[in-house]
Amino acid sequence: MEVKAWSYEEFPEFCDEVDGATLIETTGDEVEVQYLHDVPYATADGVELRLQVLKPRTRNGIDEPLPCIAFVKGSAWRPQKLYALIPQLARIAARGYVVAEVEYRPAADAAFPAQIIDAQNAIRFLRANAEQFGIDPDKMIVAGNSSGGHTAVFASFLDAGGSAYPGISATVCGVIDLYGAVSLIADDAFPITPEHHTPGSPECLLMGNIDMFEHPELREKGSVVTYITPELAIPPVLIAHGTKDRKVNTRMSVELFEKLRACGKDAELYLVQGADHGIAEFYTDRMIDIYERFIRRCLA
Question: Which of 22, 118, 151, 200 is the most exposed place for a label (fewest CB within 10 A)?
């Protein structure tokens, strides 16, 4: 065989019959996920913020731009472990979505609403660079887990300012909130976190490290439910929460769902039986089917 830079189309296929071998047929439409790591999307307070981008691709190529999910990974508003969730997010990307995991500034460096500003700038960046990433800019979803769920829901409606991309919208078609820490109000909001609402706790760091027993108004300022009114424009929201979550009280997701429904908003709640805070139960085929059905409805 001649040594040269063969194209796929011209390279001769092996067609010999081999006794005992099984030929596996393919179509060229089998999906693999390409990982583009540490893609800079903005600089804030002198810090470069990054995306972890997961793109589906096939041998035959994907002709149309794909919907995009901007996913904010939770971290108790501390520095995120950006690579830990990539295998699970790749399972979602393989369904035909560009998934971009969003880095935000930790609360100790930048208080609320810095994380919302960062998520919205990530959405703007993805929209502005839609052609580069194979994204349909009109089909954007924001999602997040734990503190990232808090950020994602806020990013879907709050005018946080601080746009790094003037003239580019941060609007989304829907929100997926996985066991989000969406409320700071209750004293038992974070069951295994010591010293609730006192300086040094994750929620206090988020709100400027101010004692929230002395300043209870900060609890409401950092809680999604206090912003929900019949007049608020908010896209459809899917909420999923485990019934044995030891880090983020399940009740806060129930209260958000009930408030959204009472205000006439489009909301779905899935209580995952026996699930603790995160991972396996939320990335089963059944749950990914639920997310995909919700996304398709939002984009229809």
Answer: 22
